[in-house]
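Example 351.
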Amino acid sequence: MRLLRAYWHIFKSVGGAMKAGRQNDLIFRYFVLETLDNLGFFEYLKQPRAYGEILAEFGFSDGEYTQEIFNTLLHDSDNVIVQNIGTYTVNPEVPLPEIESILASTDSRLHFMSQMAESLSDNILDRLQENDIGVTEIFERDDHSVVKMFDGIMDTSIYSAVRKACFAYLTSEERRWLRDKKLIEIGCGSGRETAEIWLHLGGETSITGVDPVPGMLKLAQDNFSELLKETDPTHPPLTVKNKPVFKEGSATQLPFDDNSFDASFWAFMLHWTADPKMAIREAVRVVRPGGLIFGSQAFKPYVNQYLDLVVRSSRNSFGFFWREEYIKWFAEEGLEIDIATPAGIIRVTNK
Ligand SMILES: C[S@@+](CC[C@H](N)C(=O)[O-])C[C@H]1O[C@@H](n2cnc3c(N)ncnc32)[C@H](O)[C@@H]1O
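Predicted structure in complex with S-adenosylmethionine:
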């Protein structure tokens, strides 16, 4: 029943989740290819070129990231380049995609993905050329352009649906139990998620939002009461006692003592961290024994390689991982994770 409730929220917001996944592939693929095309990469590969020659032409480093871009392009079912006796050329049989036709066949509720891909794809070139760009710098570059873009996206129905699904996946006892407890929200972003969590919990839970990006925290701090009003004009009163606290920090090094909270929540966050396993260890450390760890994290293979490459354009982002890794990292903390749906809704009781 809990599982059905969780699925229902996700299907209602994006239609068939698997179909949406394929459409996302195409959007992120388009922006990776467009970044290379703008450099003249495919024009250059009209002649056969050796790997080293290509790196020298475009100033790419011979790192893992560059190799993975080449491998992804080569092994894609629609491979835009081919390899032959140590050289690469464009594949004349696979034309470069056009964003207009991709969007025309994509559910409009997913068009925000194009905005996300476009605004993050600038970093791909930096990463290929080993100009080290970290998460905070990426999010705050160009007058906080990525912070602003994400702030809009975090307001879309899919983000909200995933949050609802996380709560739907709890038992009703757990939902009741959470009221009057202390909850840490890890990777709280611009506070939109915080406002929704606050409302799900009737304004009765003490929430501490943590995020490493100062621009995100400023939006959360400045706008929280407005966000509450926007989300539910009839919300319970916001008081000094139930007002969330926002604090700068990374999931991989939470600035709190052991057992400081009764519960933790995260969504769309672990792939941005440098070390998701460490982030899980930290959540387990700050949540007291018997407390609840819940939230969501999409994993492979439901997340496509191109989105992964876009996220990993940040030097300190791990990117997406496999369901098995997620289960293993919790198991290493002695916890058996209950995990559901391609959106990776989870709940686990801390030991
Ligand atoms: C896609 S946003 C999601 C925000 C929020 N969880 C939501 O769903 O509305 C990803 C968030 O993860 C944050 N983030 C990035 N690296 C992080 C880290 N090491 N620890 C915690 N949060 C991180 C980003 O700053 C950003 O706010």
